[in-house]
Predict the structure.
Amino acid sequence: MQTYIAILRGINVSGHNMIKMADLKTMFETLPFENIRTYIQSGNIVFNAKPGNDQDLEKQIHDTIQKTFSFSVPVIVLEEKELRKVRQHNPFLTGRNEDVTKLHVTFLEAIPENILVEKLKETAQFLPDEWILEGKAIYLFCPNGYGKTKLNNNFFENKLKVTATTRNWKTVNELVSIAD
């Protein structure tokens, strides 16, 4: 069995797409997964499954959520080693010593096309907020808080044409700890 982390976008936000974590865990138990653990109400699930394709797992989870809860939410699945790599390589912590409460990671469902990335690099400078893309992770430093940045999920989805969901640095670290 391999450890995976599923992160859902847009549940339990402003009274929309409400799912209790106990109900989400129960739903996950209907799938061929084991050792299911949830973390906070924003839709973070650590689970074990037979090694497979992340996109197949995303579709399976997405479709089961839609069937069980009658609404659709984007799902991004990461292997444990991917999440560990994200935690180990945060450019705002290597060579810099930024306030960790101002750090976030936007996870992308796929690596975006190079032409879209290059165009974004040329046009998307919103200082003092900063972003650095590495693979399927966008590291964010938002000194005035994530709630005030233009560098949100919708912005990156529109510019890069891939599904995105963001977690704060504390959540990234907690998910790695839970996956141990």
About this structure: The chain has two domains: 2-79, 83-179.
